[in-house]
Amino acid sequence: MRILALDSSGLVASAAVVEEDQTIAEYTVNYKKTHSQTLLPMVDEIARMIDLDLHTLSAIAVSGGPGSFTGLRIGSATAKGLGLALDIPLIHIPTLEGLAYNLYGAASLVCPIMDARRKQVYTGVYAFADGFITVMDQCAIPVTELAGKLNELGREVVFLGDGVPVYRETLDELLQVPHSYAPAHMNRQRAASVGALGIEYYRQGRTQIAAAHAPDYLRVSQAERERAEREKKEREACL
Amino acid sequence: MSEMKDTLILAVESSCDETAAAVVRNGREILSNIIYSQIDLHTLYGGVVPEIASRKHTEKINQVIEKALAEAGVTLAEIDAVGVTYGPGLVGALLVGVAEAKAIAYAAGKPLVGVHHIEGHIAANYIEHQDLEPPFLCLVVSGGHTHLVRVRDYGTFDILGRTRDDAAGEAFDKVARAIGLGYPGGPKIDRVAREGDPDAIAFPRAHVEDALYDFSFSGLKSAVLNYINGCRMKGETFSQADVAASFQKAVTDVLVANAMHAVEEYGADTFAIAGGVASNSALRAAMQEACAKRGVKFCYPSPVYCTDNAAMIGVAAYYEYRKGTRSGWDLNAVPNLKLGER
């Protein structure tokens, strides 16, 4: 089985071709958000380097959110176009799961955090014990709430993700459990991790047709949020 | 001609709130034209919400493209090139179509042709006027654009004039909101105006000094708002139909006057209109009359080809493809792309 994996959920743009027991190619750039211009050329370049026949792919795995709304859509639309043209399914990998999978086999809890702005982080808590376990599903919460949750769990934790430089000091202050931060080679999105987890998903039958795929933003748009708030106020005013 | 191989273009358009795909044969024959309109969603907000539009495009785009291929009865393998709108428009919305079209072209091994949205609107005229060929003059009027253009050749344009402020369609939307008609303003004003007197209220006809072909609609919009406020302050009611008809007449008068100046100046024998506002019945009638008076042939697309659609993008892509225009896998969305630039 061979999978093409994409992650453009954050500052990183990453593409990889992954098989069951090895990664054939991976191209990761953590520099400026120009994913619209870089993602497909990156796929093209690795495909040429490894003489990839696109028709040998079983599926396209894509980091499906949360993350930058625009970045997610570039990844999703690219995956959907490839899936449509090649007539193969997509595998929607939650962004935080893909990130956590960078640290496969960690003895401690794994907690990826992404800066979600509005004083929140996109985060989740994962563990490796007889496989990959979701301790807390991905969500958008204030970092203080995350720290409380981790203190409650009372286990050692390792952090990664682009939220670390933003919230490291806060976490150091609030956490009462032993914790550390993943080093540079594994602390941002990597398509190889999305692909490796994608193979697990594929084995479990967790695929979708390309037409059915859409990112999971974990947040409604600003206009919808403001409209909901306005309507709530109006309802309260009526009472 | 019969021994010549057909050229099939798959076209994708997502620059605003319509998710659209089409298959076009030889630049003139529309084999399919699928449009998923999000207008009901945006009506809740009184206008297009970019983030909602982008999300909806992502959800619907594969279905729309698959339907376009199925209705045309062609497979992706039979397509010669993929055309896609890459600007101007809402950047987040454009990016969905661009990323999707690039991936399809790449995986199917087809050339990619990035298309200018306005070039598409102009090209919509080729669909139902099979004998129309450049050179001709064209007025592009929509919610985002008001351009008076000389089409020198396929894909080659001189912009003679443009709006200095609001686009014509934008003025329709704003006035419609002010008089309580809501969004989208164009079709609503068109309908209500039929019951009104176009000479009831003397709204200004703005002409831009030193720029014969430029337009300005913000003054007109303010005049309408002032009129309404004046009525309210005096405790008078105003006739929605009269305001709509008088406003529409003011817009139409200016568009026709500038267009006919250009027709006379350039000695054009053919004049076309394009864009969403080109489906306005009063504008069509006035242009028709002005052209007939001058013995000029008047072209306009059916309403379905006036509003955003992918068929027009496929037509424009065909002529670009024939000229040898090719886009790379690094094609980006360009929200403020100028006509004639690449």
From TrEMBL, chain A:
InterPro entries: ATPase_NBD, Gcp-like_dom, T6A_TsaB. Gene3D superfamilies: 3.30.420.40. Residues 31-225 form the Gcp-like domain. GO terms for biological process: tRNA threonylcarbamoyladenosine modification. GO terms for cellular component: cytosol. Pfam families: TsaD. NCBIfam families: T6A_YeaZ (TIGR03725). This is tRNA (Adenosine(37)-N6)-threonylcarbamoyltransferase complex dimerization subunit type 1 TsaB.
Automatic annotation (TrEMBL), chain B:
It comes from the Bacteria. It holds the Pfam family TsaD. One of its GO terms (cellular component) is cytoplasm. Residues 29-314 form the Gcp-like domain. SUPFAM superfamilies: Actin-like ATPase domain. It catalyses: L-threonylcarbamoyladenylate + adenosine(37) in tRNA = N(6)-L-threonylcarbamoyladenosine(37) in tRNA + AMP + H(+). Binds 1 Fe(2+) ion per subunit. It is found in: Cytoplasm. Substrate binds at V140, V141, S142, G143, G144, D173, G186, D190, N280. GO terms for molecular function: iron ion binding; tRNA N(6)-L-threonylcarbamoyladenine synthase activity. Fe cation binds at H117, H121, D308. One of its GO terms (biological process) is tRNA threonylcarbamoyladenosine modification. It is an enzyme of class 2 (transferase). Its cofactor is Fe(2+). Its EC number is 2.3.1.234. Keywords: Acyltransferase, Cytoplasm, Iron, Metal-binding, Transferase, tRNA processing. HAMAP family: TsaD (MF_01445). Required for the formation of a threonylcarbamoyl group on adenosine at position 37 (t(6)A37) in tRNAs that read codons beginning with adenine. Is involved in the transfer of the threonylcarbamoyl moiety of threonylcarbamoyl-AMP (TC-AMP) to the N6 group of A37, together with TsaE and TsaB. TsaD likely plays a direct catalytic role in this reaction. Belongs to the KAE1 / TsaD family. This is tRNA N6-adenosine threonylcarbamoyltransferase. The gene is tsaD.
